[in-house]
Amino acid sequence: MEDFAVTTDTAANQNKWLRMFKGDPVIWFMVGILMLVGIVEVYSATSMLAWKEQHGNTTYYLVKHLGFVFMGFLVMVGLCRVSYKLLFKASNVGLYISVVLLFLTIFTGSSTNDARRWFTIPLIDISFQTSDLAKLTLMIYLAKVLSTCQNTLESKKLVFRKCMIAILAVCVLILPSNLSTALLIGGTSVMLMLVGQIPVKWIGIMVGGLLLAGVLFIGGCKLVGFHTRLDTWVTRITTYSSSDADKSGADYQSEQSKIALSRGGILGQGVGKSLQRNAIPHPYSDFIFAIVVEETGLMGGIVVVACYIIFFFRCVRIVKTTERTFPVFIVVGLCLNIVLQAVSHFLVVAGIVPVTGQPLPFVSMGGTSLLFNSVSIGIILNISRYAGKKETVTEIEEEPVQEEIQDFPFMAG
Description:
mainly alpha
């Protein structure tokens, strides 16, 4: 009897532990693999740098990264247990706060390579990249607005105007310091509007207007001699578009990345045996996939890419089995944020597009990106609990942190 009691207690403890992981188990597994790869490769890519800059402490950056991974894990566990419906009420406030912070970042943010991307919170002296917060809150806001779109033409016009103003506000404020992020956010927003059945003609007019505004902005900067990041953008594009014979080392990052990919072969050089980590600038963030392939080969690269592909299709499955429009648009927006950023990273590492400086979600070192992507995953996991009625409403409502499960006003009837 004592053995039976011990076995029962052990099983109960295991079930209690497993109950922490709410939501789609496949998404949990994919994100876990990516985080594990990130831990290994961040240590490999930063050990020599840490040895030089931190007086021989080769684990300095690894420990910092592990701290953010742990916080990201807690964020996912917490958010997958809190009803996504709370986001409906907070979406407007979240977007307003993001726009204000983006505006403040332009004038008071920390400057790196003529780009102000980081905002430091007064008193507590914590810095974060405001664009990461903005793209998260923008997707939630667009999901709310699009979910209120009815079949009448007038309501669609109003929804379109609200979406356009929000997208412009965020992208225009991010553009001066981070062109690639502004383009990714704009592209994700357009895709979300298409899913929301906004007429293609209207979206085309908006995109055309944005392109015209961009041309006028570049022309204005050239005219008044206010270049800031403009020269960097032009240099990257012209370097990328020129022939290999004309580059003469100008595209150094891309060249070193290609060397890393070629050295990887099928099975790689072995974990911790990368040579290009000492040659590629920022191998732990902007080019970490090159280090992954160099050390683990084509097979390792395929595993990483497969994780994002499986994650994408699991999100598609959630969308297909979710009955309400608001959570559907949230999953689409947040999923595209993560997947398109990963695709951008892959294309840059392979030299297919100009260098953009996009980290690889959950793999690259970087606290802000990892934490906000963890927020996105936590929200998606929460929504997956309702998809296909994996858990009954009663089971979800039993948790004290849940608000009452009810239809939104626009879904009534």
